[in-house]
Structure formats: structure tokens, C-alpha cells
Task: structure prediction
Amino acid sequence: MPPSPLNWLLGLFSLDIGIDLGTANTLVYVRNKGIVINEPSWVAIDKKTRRPLAIGAEAKELAGRTPANIVAVRPIRDGVISEFEITQAMLEYFIAKAHEQSIVPIPRPRVVIGIPSGVTEVEKRAVYDAAVAAGARESYLIEEPMAAALGAGLPVGEARGTMVVDIGGGTTEVAVFSMGGIVVSRSLRVAGDEMDTDIITYARNKYNLLIGERMAERVKVTVGSAYPLREEKTITLRGRNLVSGLPESVEVSSIEVREALSGSVQTIIDSLKETIDETPPEIIADLMETGALSIAIIVMGQRGMLNSLESGLLAPLAPIQTFVAGVFNNIYNTLNAPSDLEALRARNAELEQQVAQLTGENAQLREAQAQLGVVSALLDYARDNPGRSYLAADVVGRDESLFLSYVLLNQGAGDGVGRDMIVVTDRGLVGTVTEVTANASKVLLITDASAAVNVRLQNSRTEGVVTGQQSGELRLNFIPVDVDLQPGELALTSGLGSQFPPGIVVGQVASVRKRTQDVFQEADITSAVDFQRLEVVLIITDFDKPDIVPLLGTATPAP
Result:
């Protein structure tokens, strides 16, 4: 903003503030007061007008819960501005909130804003312009690692090395300082947001569960860790099942969350190693000698040097170790205990093997339960029809082509099976035995195109013939057109022709076709027997077919 007497006058009553414009949260520091604002970097806006409706904590509460015309967004992505006007509105809000107790009606503060160390000049200019447009009298930019080092009281202006690791929401900053400047720095866009994404991806891949960013962040904050905890924790994931589309809850442990975060944690550790590799040897010596940051020594320990240096170097680390302990206190254990990680992997493999074994046993039990259900139904059928003798047989083969439909059974002549015996299940008629060997038999299904069964309708007592079709369906024929045939009526064997015993269910009328000029009507029959899934059947072994052939067509002598 151009200098003016009004701005100068308003500036006398305005505050000097520092703003940590983070991807996840924005912190506002006021000179001599400390941090006065710590709120999420969220803004709820109207989609059409782009007018901010809520900012900060209130906007974050609306995330995922807004109507179609309102959307909650984060204008800062990976540490840089992605929505200029929304960022300007957010800065105006935080500047005004910091001056709530001030007498100045229009604050014109001097503002220092932290930016990632790897941003471009264009991105820097966007932050500067947004601050000025938001009402800053003067705007200054400082790289976040330098701000972190100054805030921690590190001697960045001295001729010795100092290291800072700053893990934020969008970026992780690793920097080595000396003589007031950055010697080596790395800025990687792997931080809190990426960890949230890791948890979302893990839930989707392992549990087919879709969760939101808020849920993932809560899981990360509650049970997330980089190293095994003394007492592992659990938390409930709540989201939408991607298969059924219904809400679902899944309980996960801190071990699983740690597994989900392992990729991002390892990326940060690798960046630390690379930064150390690029640091001049003299500064490495300073880091080791003064204990400026324990992480520098831990990386050395990974190379086998920690055991000999640990006792003399850990004590001086306490002041600066406090700064990074909140976000990275487990890296030492992660790097220094590969054997524990190997033990966890071995334990995980052992548990996976047990799961596979239990899954197989569970499948076997389910199969046994299913077979028991089939056999139990057949036994009930035999008890309900005590006048016949039955032999149970397993289906061991089948042929269901267009021209022949039969199944093969594991009972044959040696078991008492003969030609023309009737085969049923608890659901109805199956077919007739046509061929027999010593230990097997072939059954022609009633759905075969050559099969015909004399039936009687249960309600109307009308007789007809059910024939198989090449399509595998059943059709009822020769029912007089004046019979009131209704869908749902049962067709049972009539016993006529002596081919089948009477009273066996053949099927149920599904649809009726008739024309007034025809003599007969016909209907489609649906069998309750699932011929595609026959597993166990009953063979009626004691049905003696009356020999009526010689009597057919014989005239009775006159008295």
C-alpha cells in the first residue's frame, strides 16, 4: 500500500504482528502479547458471488456439511496461495481480529509473513500483495525455517551450524543455518495433508471405506505415530462403504495408522538424510559438537556412529530438542531400532498367515453348514413321505446342452439303483434313472426336450402333460381352454401312465396363454428345483410301476 499520512497516523495505533500463513492453520503473533490467534486456514464462500460467509474455525466446521451453493475451501495449498481473493479476505479477518481490543477503527499494521523456502518469486509476490490488499501498512516476508529458528532462540547469526525441521500442514522445511543465512535447505510437499491422504487411501484400499479429510485428520491426531507406542490405541473410522454405498464404521488400531503413515514419514526421514549429505563437513561437526539438533546425530547413528557418541552428546541437546519434539520425537526410535521394525514385519506376516488359515477353515465350515442344510431338508422330506424307500446320492457330473439334460450320481447297481427309478429332492421332481453302472447312474432331467410328465393341477384337478423344452424350461399342455387356470397353481404328478408315483410336486404355473378359438391352453411352469445347483438328491427305490401296457387298447367282452 503506498505510504500516506493517513496510513502513518493509523499505523501509530496499530500493532506489529507476525502471521504464520499455514496450509492447515494460521497463527497470528502480536508483539509483547504472544500468539493471539490459532485457527484453521478455512474459508466458507458462496459459489456464485465468491463472498466469504465464514472464516477460520467456523468455516472448518462447515466442511462437508454445506448446501450445494456454499463450499468450504482452504485457500493455501502446499504452503502457497491458490485462491488470491479468498486469502486476502482471510488475512483481513485475522488482522481485524487481532485488533479487536485496539482503538484504531481501520488497522494498518506492519506484518511479517512466513513463506516456504522453496517458493518462486511469483508466489512470494502473491503473498506480499495479499497482505497489502488486506490492510498491511508494511509487509515483510521471511522464510519459515528462519522464522522457526528465531522463534526457538537458536543462534542463527553465529558462525556455527544450526538445523531446523519444520513439519507443517502442506510442506516440510529442512534447513541448516550459519551466519544469519541458509546454507542448505529442502522444502518438500509432504506433511500433514499428505498424511491425511495416506489415511484416506489406506481406508479405501483395505476396507473399501471412503472417509473425509476431517475424519482422516482426527485419526492422525488421535492415534497417529511414527514409532510403536508403549500402549497401542484404537479408533473408529466412519465413512461410506464403496461396495454397498451405505454408512459403515470400522475400528482400526494405531499399528494400522502407523503403517498408513509410514510412506510419508520415510520421505521426511530421507529428506533429512539428503540435507545432512549436502551440509559442509565443518557445519556437521558443529551440529555434533553443540548438539544443535538431535536428528543430525540420529542420522549418524543410522551409519553406526551413535553408540560411541550418545553419552557425551545427548545432554546438550535439550534446549533445541524441545522445539522439534512435538512433531518428530519418534524419529530417533524409528532410525535406531530397525530390529523392532523387522519384528513387527515378521509379526504382521505371521498374523496374515493365521488370517489366511482361519479364512480357509471358515470357508470349510460354511460349506459343511450348507451341505448339512441340504441333507437336513432331504431327511425332512423323507419323514413327511414315509410310504417310500429312499437312497441319497451326490451329483458328481452333469450335461445341460440344448439337446440333452442329465446329471450323474455316485450310486449305482451295487447300491440298489435300477433303471426307471424316480429321482426327487425336497423341492420336487428331478427326473428318471436311464442308465446304471456298478457304482454310478445317469438321470434324465424333466427339463430335457424328450421328457414328459402326466400332472394334475392341485386346485382345478384338471389333468395335463408337462414337457421339457430345448431352452431348459417346462411347459404345461392339453389343458382345456374353458378351465380357469391361474398363475401360482401347483402341478403334481398324477400317476397316470404309471411312470411316476402320484403327488410329487412338478412345478408352479407362471404364465398362461390361451385363445378362444383353441381347444387347449398352455402355460409355463416354474420348478422349485434349481437344476443348475443340484448337489444331493433322493432316489425312490421301491416304486413298482404297474404293467398296464398289455391292457391298453384291449376291449372288454360283452356279457
User: Anything to note?
Assistant: The mean pLDDT is 78. The first strand starts at residue 16 and ends at 21. The chain has three domains: 5-151, 192-336, 390-551. The chain has 14 helices and 28 strands.
